[in-house]
Every structure is written in C-alpha cells, then in structure tokens.
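Deliverable D2.4 — example input (structure tokens):
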C-alpha cells in the first residue's frame, strides 16, 4: 500500500499543493479506491505468476479470480480458477503412411471444363411450341396439402406454397421428384394440377410422405442456346484463340489438382494425429471455437442463398456439427503446437506480414487497414496459428511414407436441385 500510495503522491495534483507535495493522508482520501485497485492488481499478477511457475502449469484462456480477503494490515487472499492445456504423449509423427492418387489432367477433363465455360455464355430463348424434355419452363404455382395451403401443414415451407416466375429445368431429378416430367406437352398459358407423393426423407419433415398438389400455369418456354467454341468465344475469356484457351484451362486444372492433392495429404496427416492422441480439451476454448464454427456455417449457408427460416430449422444439427468440428480444431491446434515446440518450428513477424499483404490484395484493401482490423479482433494470433499449422504439416509431409494409388472410380449421381 505504501509503495503504490507513494507513486500516486508523486503524480497527485491537489488544490493548494505543488505536484508531489500533498500530504499522504490527503492523497489516500482523494485516490483511496484507485490505490486499492492498483494494489490488488499488482498482488494478483505477482501471486498468479508465482503460483503458475511453482505448479508448472500451462494455462489456456482467461483466469477467473475470486477475492477472499483484502484489507489494511491483513494478508491478501485470493483464489484463481484456471483451465490448463491438455497433457498427452505425441504419437510417432515421422513416417506417417499416406496415399497419393496418380492423377493427371486429361483431354476429357479439359473438354468438360470448356463445356462449363460454354454453359456460362449460354442464352435462353423463348420458343412457340409445347414443352419438351430438357426445355426450361417459367411457371407460376401454388401448393396445397390435404386441400389446404401447404403452409398450414408446414408453416416454414413458404417457397412451396406459392411462387411466381419460377424457372425449372424440365428434366428428371430437378425441383421435386416427378414434377418436371408432368410439364411435358403443356404450352404457354396452359394450367395443370400436379399431384405428387413426397419422399419419406423429404427435406421438410412435416411434408414427408404426404400427398401434395401444385396448381401450375405455364408463363414461358425457353431453350438453352450454347455458343460455338471458336476463336471469338476464346477472346471473351482473354485468350487469343481456342488453343490458347485450352492451354489456360489446362493450367487452371493442374493448379486445382495440386491443391486437391495437398488437401488430401493434409487431411490424412491430421486424421492420423487425431486418431492417435486421446486427451480432455479445455471447455472454454471448445465453447469459443464452437461459436466461431457456428458463425462460419451460418454465413456460408446465407451466401449459398439458403433462407433464414431453413437455417433456424436446422440450428440443432448445425450446433452438433459445429461442436464436433470445434473439438477437432482445438485438438489439432494443441497437437501441432506440441510438435512445433519439439521440432523448433516458429513463425516470424516477416511471415505474418507477408500473409497480411497477400490477404489485403485478395480483399482489395490497404495492408495497414487490414492489419488494424485483425488486431481489433485478435486476428493476428489466428494467422500465426494458420502459418504454424501449415509449416508443421509441410514438415510431416516431407517425412511421410507415400503410397501412390490409382484414382477411385467416381459414381455418377443425379443431383437434385
């Protein structure tokens, strides 16, 4: 108390006294509460650091301090509850067995990618005839279940209750099973009631296995017209000719293949570490990471155009998935940190600065502005962890035992839209 009071006295500005000359009792009267706060803070910091050192604790998160006794001429007593980093033995991380697919970019891959570019430039033209397979129909519809609006059975199924100017590809498997096929033969202005029995695993549970009826009116019928792949087409994508465009597409596919190989390798390395380490994780760190994952999942769903109502319906599933993902992320971070410490892997300030510059370029903003934003939300620590993880996994990949395997045969599936 005397030391801190002396520090306040040297800086005190009290009426009638020069700076630093006010009597001690008047300084205590004017600044008593602040002096006590400083004393508490200093003693807690000093005692906490000593206790951590004496007990050889590796703490995580923020400590919870509970004051027990504080007063003039009394011993200061306080309790601190801390969470500690998990203790575990590192598995053998040198020579991890991983598989690498022997895959290269083929002419067929390039043809498919060219077809995607062709699709992007496609135009939809109205036709004056009845609907045929693979046309695109623009329709108005209202939906009923048991003779009542669908929303009375499933309040959140507003998109099925009524839709105007809805585009549908007239091809099996699109929209709702059995719906597109019943449009074939209809013309502009025609109306039709389409009755369907929805699947047992229909995405909206209240409607699963139910009979629903859609009252449909055809507004427009369109065909998809794809452009010819010629030099003029290539120029629209910044290439001189078709050969140049194919070369650019091939380079993009090669880069994508390298990225996929890298991702697959890292997934296998991480899976090995997760499988071979068993430990309890700090609850507060898992809780915070779960919130981060939930935020990411919700934002991703919103960017994909999924309605807020649908996201709310699945909030329990989202939270369960987020908790599982968060536990894995936290566990991996501790394992990576331990390997880094053992192998002497560190992250330099220059590496962090380089990453911030790269991020700023991708966001099209000044690096200084991004750096300021990152500091505000502790984002620099996140970047440091990402770089450290990348460096450790690169090290493990160099030391891994790689087996080359043939690509898995991909089964073609019909995607439902």
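Example output (designed residues):
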């Amino acid at each position: 108390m005397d030391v801190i009071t002396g520090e306040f006295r040297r800086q005190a500005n009290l009426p009638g006294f020069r700076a630093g000359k006010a009597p001690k009792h008047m300084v205590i009267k004017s600044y008593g509460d602040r002096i006590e706060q400083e004393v508490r803070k200093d003693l807690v910091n000093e005692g906490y650091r000593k206790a951590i050192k004496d007990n050889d604790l590796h703490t995580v998160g923020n400590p919870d301090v509970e004051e027990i006794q504080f007063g003039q001429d009394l011993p200061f007593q306080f309790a601190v509850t801390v969470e500690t980093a998990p203790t575990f033995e590192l598995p053998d991380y040198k020579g991890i067995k991983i598989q690498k697919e022997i895959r290269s970019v083929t002419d067929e891959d390039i043809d498919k990618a060219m077809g995607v570019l062709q699709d992007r430039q496609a135009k939809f033209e109205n036709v004056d005839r009845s609907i045929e397979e693979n046309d695109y129909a623009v329709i108005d519809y209202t939906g009923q279940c048991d003779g009542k609006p669908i929303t009375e059975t499933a309040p959140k199924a507003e998109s099925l209750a009524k839709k105007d100017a809805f585009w549908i590809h007239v091809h099996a498997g699109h929209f709702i099973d059995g719906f597109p096929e019943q449009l074939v033969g209809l013309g502009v202005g025609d109306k039709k009631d389409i009755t369907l029995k929805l699947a047992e695993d229909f995405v909206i549970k209240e409607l699963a296995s139910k009979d629903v009826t859609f009252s449909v009116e055809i507004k427009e019928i369109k065909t998809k017209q794809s452009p010819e792949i010629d030099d003029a087409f290539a120029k629209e994508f910044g290439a001189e000719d078709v050969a140049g465009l194919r070369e650019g597409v091939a380079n993009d596919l090669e880069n994508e293949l390298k990225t996929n190989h890298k991702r697959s390798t890292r997934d296998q390395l991480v899976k090995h570490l997760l499988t071979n380490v068993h430990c309890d994780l700090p609850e507060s760190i898992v809780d915070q990471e779960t919130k981060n994952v939930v935020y990411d999942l919700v934002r991703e769903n919103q960017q994909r155009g999924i309605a807020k109502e649908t996201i709310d319906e699945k909030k329990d599933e989202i939270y369960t998935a987020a908790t599982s993902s968060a536990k894995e992320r936290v566990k991996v971070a501790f394992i990576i940190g331990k390997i880094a410490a053992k192998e002497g892997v560190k992250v330099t300030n220059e590496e962090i600065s380089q990453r911030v510059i790269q991020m700023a370029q991708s966001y099209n903003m000044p690096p200084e502005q991004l750096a300021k934003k990152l500091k505000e939300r502790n984002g620099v620590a996140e970047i440091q962890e990402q770089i450290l993880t990348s460096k450790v996994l690169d090290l493990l990949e160099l030391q891994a035992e790689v087996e080359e395997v043939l690509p898995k045969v991909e089964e073609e599936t019909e995607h439902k839209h």
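DSSP finds 13 helices and ten strands in the chain.
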